[in-house]
Amino acid sequence: MCATALSAAPQSEPASRLMPMPATVEPGSGQLLIDRSFSISVTGYHDASLDRAIQRFLTQLTRETGIPIWSKSGDSNPSLLIRADQAREIPQRLGEDESYALSITPSRAELTAPNPLGILHGLETFLQLVEPCAGGFIVPAVRIQDQPRFAWRGLLIDVSRHFIPPDVIKRNLDAMAAAKMNVLHWHLTDDEGFRVESRRFPQLHGQGSEGQFYTQPEIREIVSYAYDRGIRIVPEFDIPGHSRSWFLGHPELASGLGPYSLDGNASPAMDPTLESTYRFLDKFLVEMAGLFPDAYFHIGGDEVDGKQWDANPKIQAFLRAHGMKNNQDLQAWFNQRLARILAKRHKVMIGWDEILHPDLPKTSVIQSWRGQQSLAVAAKQGYTGLLSHGYYLDLMWSASRHYAVDPMADAASVLTPDEKIRILGGESCMWAEWITPENIDARIWPRNAAIAERLWSPQTVTDLDSMYSRLRAFSLRLEWLDLTHRSARSRMLRRMVGSDDVAALSVLADVVEPVKDYTRWKGVAQLDFHAPLNRLVDAVYPESELARRFSSTVQAYLQGGHADKAAEAQIRAQLLLWRDNDVQLRPLLVQRSLLQELAPISANLSTLGASGLKALVYLDRSEPSPEPWKADRLAEVEQAKTPRASLLLVVVAPIERLIQATSH
Amino acid sequence: MCATALSAAPQSEPASRLMPMPATVEPGSGQLLIDRSFSISVTGYHDASLDRAIQRFLTQLTRETGIPIWSKSGDSNPSLLIRADQAREIPQRLGEDESYALSITPSRAELTAPNPLGILHGLETFLQLVEPCAGGFIVPAVRIQDQPRFAWRGLLIDVSRHFIPPDVIKRNLDAMAAAKMNVLHWHLTDDEGFRVESRRFPQLHGQGSEGQFYTQPEIREIVSYAYDRGIRIVPEFDIPGHSRSWFLGHPELASGLGPYSLDGNASPAMDPTLESTYRFLDKFLVEMAGLFPDAYFHIGGDEVDGKQWDANPKIQAFLRAHGMKNNQDLQAWFNQRLARILAKRHKVMIGWDEILHPDLPKTSVIQSWRGQQSLAVAAKQGYTGLLSHGYYLDLMWSASRHYAVDPMADAASVLTPDEKIRILGGESCMWAEWITPENIDARIWPRNAAIAERLWSPQTVTDLDSMYSRLRAFSLRLEWLDLTHRSARSRMLRRMVGSDDVAALSVLADVVEPVKDYTRWKGVAQLDFHAPLNRLVDAVYPESELARRFSSTVQAYLQGGHADKAAEAQIRAQLLLWRDNDVQLRPLLVQRSLLQELAPISANLSTLGASGLKALVYLDRSEPSPEPWKADRLAEVEQAKTPRASLLLVVVAPIERLIQATSH
Fold first, then answer.
1. Residue A290 distance to chain B (closest CA, Å)
2. Residue B241: is its pLDDT beyond 60?
3. Mean pLDDT computed over A215-223
4. Which tens digits make up the pLDDT trace of A267-293?
5. Residue A425: pLDDT band by 50, 70, 90 thresholds?
6. What angle do CA A251, A238, A378 make, to 5 degrees?
7. How many angstroms separate the Cα of B293 from the Cα of each of B152, B183, B288, B428, B594?
8. B505 touches chain A (CB under 8 A)
9. Beta bridge partners of B31
10. Cα(A1)–Cα(B588) distance, integer angstroms
């Protein structure tokens, strides 16, 4: 690609910059130049939404190349010819054809699709293909035929635990579109906050949001913003549990007596035995059904805490009167009533695993937070389903770990073809206990793009090196969409330090990750959702790219029998930096209470750096280390594995390997 | 300040973070803690605009501290008590009282002002006082009594040569408010573009803007956005010259025959002899007077190219018939007519130096791009005036050079007190031939804050070290307002390189500055306003902070007789990095045509780095360098002073000093 006499470095294959990887990519020969004469012509079907998409594409192309490109549609010899055969649906429908074909030759590009959805995806692919070249910018010649593996590729954003303002939602929709995700699952209510304006019941957001909610015009605008980007919005109102925030304004819905507050741990449930509850929900859901045009409507249904039901004699009497064996039966009764209310409005009900019950209408969709097993069980019973287990972004897993999770794996892999069709796709989940508008981008991206690829690309696309290399390119491109997933960290570090001299803190920040799974919750009796999320754990990336690279350099160096002197030099430079960093950082750590908690982990990094350097000396001399030295070092390694300040030092493992290797 | 047993580093004086420096600052003792219990109470006058300002203040405080602070007005024991005595005017009026008093004790802060304008300024001062502390964040105890030196403190933004979208204007208004500037002079039309929607004459923006203009709702929104921030908006319609863009839609206004195009160098003028011109302008200016509520209205009037007037026999006949001696008389006639049109709408006319003429109404304001001399001449004649000479941001001067320019200096310093009162203040000017929405923030900020300080603070505030130190703090704070003055450079470097591996290019970018004054125009026959501004010169900062610091380190080292080993080590490390950078950078330079032009300057940096290192060796040994060596090195230095790729290598001078010092 991008070949000229001057082009010294080998250029990349077109596919090496694409994420998610298309279904088929055939490299061609030569390239199409992108310069200020770039023009677009649209034939076939088009509408205002497609026109806006093309305008966004041109704006983006201008931003990324710095070349002011003016829309010249109707050009008789366009650089890019766009043709959609027919209209897409309004509202967007699950299972619409999203395929597209993109063909680029040195003289012209052609993007065709059955409808504008494919055009949207193809334009994103085109942007990813743009690369700098000796003479400016080009796209390589290529033929791409692409379509998604799954029809439902979602991201859940919880806006209840911490409110996420409209502009932050919008930029995440831009990023989702870049990753070809097509569902925003908007977790709008939970115990800690009710985030939608209800005009029918203004006490809901009035009492339940501390003033932090989306107005109805804001919601309409976001729904239309998402539509323009090929993204459906599925609202979730989590009931009958996870509903404390409803009860501040409407305690009559609750099974207990209250009073209720947004703070606290209690998770009271609605009273499913009262007809008044259904009359209320009927009116409320009608209002919301009008606001959210999507055919699917999520009613939550997870983790219903049965204590209030158990403690309420009227509810117990109701159970007996209706021959119900347990609270599950009661929730099933509730869900059937909800399903009927929603059906009147032509909405398909969707809920978490727990709604699965023999009485559940077969049209319902099960979203599994528990795993492929429960997904398979549902599919066998005739329900459609979505996988979210393994895609929880708040657990701080690596991209590779999420990437390895496949909706069709494990229990799902043995389903019959008819049952497999019922697995619609999956959704990553950004639960918001520990996130704020400031760090949410960095919690979602770039890792979420690995999940997006799992849901879009062929099942056989699994190479980790390729994924990480493309993820890095994807992450850089997100910055042109003004995502803050990279910039927020340095702002937060500067705040911690109180100046722009963040070099030493950055060295530490580069090699730590937040603790995984729910470890951060340990010892936290009650979460305080008004507390500042201002610590290093809130600022650092969930996955350290530096640690990943260091680890693979160490591995290559050890496997090569310590012969690779360039690798050794890299390792040594890194270890020196770590060894000497604590001295740089310590004066800061004692000054600021926000940073004091970092003293032990900074000391550990320094110790490990020194040990690693000594190990290199032994390896370099091919001289075994003395056993006591090694034992002492490994003891240090062990203690360095303990999380400090909710952080893991993630270069422990490769340094341990260096130390271990000294005895060979 | 911020004293605790743990606080090791000396804390700063409160004034050390303030920009512009207040009129008086008396440090107190102790500090007021900022935590989540922070509360505000407003007594006295308040209105919706003030409420919004307080909300913005809280949002900003939350962003900068990471502490979620919720507005709790009406608190009986507030952390910050705000009291404005009475309303401000609508629209904002030149000369309104902008003073405020801010008193902070360990128990409470009080901000009082005659009207909300002072409150706006005081809130900005408060934000600048916030500093990290061992236990979190504090503001130091202090008493500040503050008011501006000049009533007119403006920034001109030219949106004609390159269109600047509304969101970019808005964030620059935020930054102006932070710097206590109070006038946005919006240069809306010029030869290259007519940027306002006119409903009366839609061909003006229709033919004159290539679709890049502000709609009237956008203008109204920006005017109200500015009002909320204590900023007046003065529109400029530059006539009768600089008006080519008008003639695409309305050639009948021109003195020549046309045809007209937005491209090209010609600067045709309006025909001031036709009554139809005034009928048109009357209708147009009435429409614009309704859109822009400010009492002042700028008609440009600069650099009228008389060629068309000279060549038009009818115009020449008109001159003779009216006893006019020259084109200046004709322009004065035009201006008198304009002044009458504007007076009907209660607008005060303002124009550039050239409008000064015995026939000009005394109410007019003269804006001087030529210097204090013409400002003084105007003041003596009874006109009020503004200084812009010395404040042209497009000339790429250092902050210190702008800072040294005082409206009351030179010819203005000998005016009588009555005449001095006529000097209203000044305006920095961001002319847009070489700027885009991408780099405009970095072209304006942070340097513009030095000019803002010159116009706000007492004339005696002139210390450069203090200015630079506070400017750096100010610049960092601007990032919390989402200004891109720092982040744009790295995005642009990544684009040039095509990856995020920009280390070597950044080393070069750190030590170059764009050529000064109008040097970049040399050899450019015709500017192409559609060309990409994609080169290193477009990305680098107008002033290199690294070079400034390096220079002062070298100076201190040499003055100290080479004894300061720490300084020497710093200098050596820097020189080593420079010497070795060319090898790192060269592979990239040959690959990309955008970067090829940098090869000579990168080579020069390497050469100078090596020479500087050798000089250090001589200095270290206190051994004079051999004369031929020194002569050769100085010859290299001389050639390195030549601009390359429109860039100056700004570490030449300190390295030259090192080489020169080797012969002492």
1. 30
2. yes
3. 98
4. 899 999 999 999 999 999 999 999 999
5. very high
6. 140
7. 17, 13, 9, 22, 45
8. no
9. B140
10. 16
| CA–CA separation, A483 and A169 (whole Å) | 11
Q: How far apart are CA B186 and CA B183, in angstroms?
A: 9
CB within 8 Å of chain B, chain A residues 474-493: 476, 479-480, 487, 491-492
H helix runs in B479-535, sequence order: 487-497, 503-509
Query: How long, in residues, is chain A?
Result: 664
Pairing of strands B136-146, B24-34: antiparallel
Which two tokens mark B493?
């470097």
Select from B132, B494, B592 the Cβ nearest to the Cβ of A498: B132
A185 bridge partner residues: A156, A234
Whether residue A245 contacts residue A275, with contact meaning beta carbons closer than 8 Å, is answered with no
Q: How far is A589 from chain B (nearest CA, A)?
A: 9
Considering chain A, what percentage of its residues have pLDDT values greater than 90?
Answer: 91
Chain B closest-CA separation from residue A645 CA (Å) = 17
Distance CA B160, CA B138 (A): 44
Q: Please name the residues in contact with B190: beta carbons below 8 A apart, sequence gap of 6 or more.
A: B158, B160, B161, B238, B242, B243, B245
Q: Which of residues 413-432 of B touch A (CB under 8 A)?
A: none
Query: How do beta strands A647-649 and B24-34 pair?
Result: unpaired
Q: Which residues contact A62 (CB under 8 A, 6 or more apart)?
A: A68, A69
Q: Beta-carbon neighbour count of residue B630 at 10 Å?
A: 18
Give A480's contacts in chain B (Cβ within 8 Å). Answer: 491
Classify residue B331 as exposed, middle or buried by CB count within 10 Å of its CB (0-12, 13-18, 19+). buried
Coil, helix or strand for B283?
A: helix
User: Of all residues in chain B, what percent are helix, strand and coil, respectively (each to 5)?
Assistant: 45, 15, 40
| DSSP string over B311-360 | H-HHHHHHHHHTT--SHHHHHHHHHHHHHHHHHHTT-EEEEEGGG--TTS
Encode pLDDT of B278-299 as tens digits: 999 999 999 999 999 999 999 9
Yes or no: say if B652 and B639 are a contact pair by the CB < 8 Å rule. no
Q: Which tokens hold the place of B435?
A: 């700027």
Does the structure show a pLDDT above 80 at A3? no
Q: What is the pLDDT of residue B12?
A: 62
Strands B136-146 and B183-190 turn out to be unpaired
Are A228 and A52 a contacting pair, CB within 8 Å?
yes
CA distance B590 to chain A (A): 6
| ipTM (interface pTM) | 0.90
- Which bin fits B86, alpha (ψ -120 to 50), beta or left (φ > 0)? beta
**DSSP-derived secondary structure letter, B422:** T
Residue-averaged pLDDT of chain A: 94
CA nearest to A488 within chain B: B480
Could you give the angle at the alpha carbon of A652 between the alpha carbons of A650 and A657, nearest 5°? 130
Pairing of strands A24-34, B348-352: unpaired
B chain contacts of residue A476, beta-carbon cutoff 8 Å: 494, 499-500
Rounded to a whole number of angstroms, the distance between the first and last alpha carbons of chain A is: 45
Provide the H-helix boundaries in A275-383.
Answer: 275-291, 307-311, 313-321, 327-344, 372-380
Q: Give yes or no for B132 touching A (CB within 8 A).
A: yes
Considering CB atoms only, which of A66, A480, A532 is closest to B67? Answer: A532
CA distance A574 to A570: 6
DSSP string, B580-629: HHHHHHHHHHHH-HHHHTTHHHHHHHHHHHHHHHHHHHHHHHT-PPPHHH
Q: Which of A157, A155, A163, A277 is nearest to A215 (CA)?
A: A163
Q: Which residue of chain B is at minimal alpha-carbon distance from A3?
A: B591
Q: Do A534 and B66 touch (CB under 8 A)?
A: yes
